[in-house]
Peroxisomal membrane protein 11C (Biomphalaria glabrata), 171 residues
Amino acid sequence: MSTCQGEEKGLLKPLEICTALFNQLYYPSEHIAWFRQKKILSGNSAPFSLLGLLFWALALLGEIAKCLVRLMRLNAQAKSLQKQRKLDRDSSHETSTQNIQIQENLKKLTAEKMDCILLFLQYSCDFINAISWMPPGVLWAQKLKSSTNGILGMIASFIMLYRNWPSSQNS
């Protein structure tokens, strides 16, 4: 299991760097496109708008990949804890403190997995929208109805609000 975690950490770091880079490149390209669109800067805004969409889509793809790697790690940890719990139950008929600790860790892992799944859904909805807004000929670009784009955007926004809403457990 340690080699698997090492591979995941080795995979997560480049994904995090690329995602951060794409996010940072998105903003200047989007700002230049806006300045050109408003005639503050001369020139065509279309190339910078497309570049902004591309950076956004690549950042979202990186976030989706990170979620999948984390889900695999969390599932492996949950399996390991379930094996430990089964071994602990087999060795003693009573509920041990170790078994209680394992149960608490499993609850934490389940919460982390749920959060990761929500993030995956949020980023997936945004990614579908990012591709949809690209010029025709790129995957499913320009093929979704505007209502579908709106619904996907609302789903992503609601997930973000839900995840960031203060919970009673944090107080």
